[in-house]
Specification:
heterodimer, A: mainly alpha, two-stranded antiparallel sheet, B: mainly alpha, Arp2/3 complex 21 kDa subunit ARPC3, 3 domains, 68% helix
Chain lengths: 269, 352
């Protein structure tokens, strides 16, 4: 059955909240990535994403994809979660983009389908692109799934990001959920009061009005937050707590990430 | 438009990180100068708002749906610096928390959507809404166009970034290593979807939000209204009308001064001939003959300033200028007369 605009938007909100809760759940489990210091996790996985993008050989990208799979299993991330959340989505999205490359990339012909010629270079281009995106997005998703947001923020602080930027990221993350919930409730209440189908123009008006109310609420919320900050003594100087300490296990992990990344870059050059 | 990891080469990503970094640095520096304490919660909440707006499934003409970015309303309410930071934070949270968009391409996504999108939205909105009242309809239209332009500018940049990959990064066999399509394919493929649907989604939400704010909270539109806060209260329909009239007077005066340029045009406008001119035109191909009806009716009215050249003025240029002044003055006199008549008519209605 075709979903209406209200249903589609409400379901989108619910999906986002479910995904966020699942991430927090996985991040609290015991596993390989979870046992490492968040700074090592962030740096190591970013290094592997970089190695994936730097590698020019398909075998090396495939090896890195296998490494991502192994890390996922050791970090107790379910393959089904990765398959539905990453691999199928990337395959559908990147597949659509890569598919015409099979025909339009000039090179040695390997098959002829009517007026279209499949080339060897075209097949390699499409396969490399899909594999590369799958591997890179898997590493990124592992970071997202295995790290609590507060830890991501502290790890970013270690990268010398301005304190103000970290504070804004933290506050935004908190209010994203509040506003998603508010918007979801607004759409849900509207949905329960709506009988029959709305015309597209009415739907657009409703979306704009809902966004407008949400904007007004957001601004008044920011005023309240500012007053609360002031009443707690905020004078414009942001303080960030950072209580991470690197252990021997973290240094080992960092070394392994560096080794894997360096080998991949060297072999894939 | 969120470019995932793997589509762009590391060097492209690095360059775009530098571009986005410049935007972040300058925005943060500018806001620090203003009042950072007040701005932090505002930008944070606005980033959250943009994030939520991106999840709205907007119905578009043609039965399809699209997602807006929220960059235009951020640029209108917060200004370009605030919008750059708010959108960048929303994009960073999408990438780092929800895995939507890549980590290596975070700089590219922020550069395209947050930096360039905000600047295009802000500049086009300011340009189109200049001098308009806070509650003017023009602001709604300006927001829609600004949103459409911002999204398409960001999409065009993304298309160019995709399109240069096969030119710069391929192996010895010519196999592209990253995004496989050249500019000639990447730009139309990207732009068709954005010119038709994605741009419209941003236009719809931006216009709708500005229209809503005009009624519910016009104060939020003041930051980028182009008028200082102390004068913002004075932006009423009357105030703007007075300013618009002033502009109109200047434009009319300039046009009057430019009227002698008409002399430079060679020949006469087709079909606007006097009997004499018609005879001259016909003489080129055949013996002159002026229709009898035209000859008779042409003498029906003798203009005081024939051919914009009053008989008492020797200079043609001055004659043009004088004709323009006379024409404008005459129209003004008629308008004033009509206004007086209307006012008298209204007074009569109220008294009865």
């Amino acid at each position: 059955m075709k979903r209406g605009f209200l249903e589609a938007t409400t379901m989108g909100f619910a999906r986002a909240l479910t995904r966020a809760m699942l991430s927090e759940q996985i991040a609290r489990q015991r596993g390989l990535l979870q046992s490492l210091d968040p700074r090592v996790r962030l740096f190591g996985l970013f290094l592997l994403v970089l190695a994936v993008t730097l590698s020019r050989k398909m075998t090396v990208v495939a090896a890195l994809f296998a490494l991502a799979l192994a890390i996922a299993l050791l970090s107790r991330v379910r393959i089904a979660t990765l398959a539905t959340r990453v691999w199928l989505v990337v395959l559908a999205f990147t597949g659509v983009i890569a598919f015409p490359a099979i025909f339009v990339t000039p090179g040695h012909p390997v098959a002829v389908l009517g007026p279209l010629t499949i080339t060897e270079q075209g097949l390699r281009t499409a396969a490399l692109l899909i594999l590369r995106v799958e591997a890179a997005v898997t590493f990124t998703t592992l970071l997202v799934l295995c790290t609590q947001w507060t830890h991501v923020l502290k790890a970013l602080r270690a990268l010398r990001l301005p304190k103000e930027a970290i504070t804004m990221l933290a506050m935004t993350h908190r209010y994203v959920f509040l506003l998603v919930e508010t918007a979801s409730q607004m759409f849900e209440s509207r949905r329960s009061r709506t009988v029959g189908l709305l015309k597209p123009a009415e739907q657009r008006h409703m979306a704009a009005r809902t966004a407008g109310v949400l904007l007004s609420k957001s601004v008044s919320l920011s005023n309240e937050v500012y007053l609360a900050m002031q009443s707690r003594g905020f004078r414009g100087d942001v303080q960030v707590l950072s209580d991470f300490r690197l252990t021997m296990w973290d240094y080992c992990g960092l070394l392994l990430f560096l080794l894997a990344g360096a080998i991949a870059v060297w072999m894939g050059r | 438009m969120h470019i995932p990891d793997g589509y762009l080469s590391p060097s492209t990503c690095a360059v775009l990180y530098v571009g986005a970094g410049a935007g972040w640095y300058s925005a943060l520096k500018r806001l620090k100068r203003v009042l950072l304490g007040r701005v932090i919660p505002l930008i944070s909440v606005f980033a959250a708002f943009s994030f939520v707006v991106m999840m709205f499934n907007l119905p578009l003409p043609g039965g399809t749906t699209g997602h807006a970015l929220g960059v235009t309303i951020a640029a209108i309410v917060l200004g370009p610096s605030g919008a750059i930071l708010a959108l960048s934070i929303a994009i960073a949270i999408q990438a780092l928390f929800f895995g939507d968009g890549g980590i290596s391409t975070l700089g590219a996504n922020c550069f395209n959507m947050a930096v360039v999108g905000s600047l295009v939205a802000y500049a086009s909105y300011r340009l189109m809404a200049a001098g308009a009242a806070l509650t003017s309809r023009r602001r709604v239209v300006a927001a829609a166009i600004a949103g459409y332009l911002a999204v398409n500018a960001a999409a065009l940049l993304a298309a160019v970034e995709f399109g240069i990959q096969p030119l710069l990064f391929h192996d010895a066999n010519g196999t592209p290593l990253y995004a496989p399509y050249r500019l000639g394919v990447a730009i139309p493929a990207m732009m068709i979807g954005h010119l038709t649907f994605a741009g419209l989604a941003e236009a719809v939400i931006s216009a709708g939000l500005v229209a809503y704010l005009q009624v519910a909270d016009p104060a939020l539109l003041r930051t980028t209204s182009g008028v200082p806060d102390d004068k913002a209260e004075a932006i009423t329909a009357g105030g703007t009308a007075a300013r618009s009239l002033q502009t109109l007077w200047i434009a009319i005066a300039a046009l009057m001064l430019l009227t002698p340029l008409g002399i430079l045009a060679a020949g006469t406008a087709w079909g606007e001939w006097s009997p004499l001119e018609l005879a001259r035109v016909q003489h080129v191909n055949s013996p002159p003959s002026v229709p009898a009806g035209l000859q008779r009716l042409s003498n029906l009215w003798t203009a005081p300033f024939p051919a914009y050249a009053p008989s008492f003025v020797r200079s043609r240029g001055f004659g043009y200028l004088l004709s323009a002044m006379f024409g404008v003055g005459f129209l003004l006199a008629v308008s004033l007369l009509l206004r007086l008549l209307l006012q008298r008519h209204r007074r009569g209605e109220y008294s009865s």
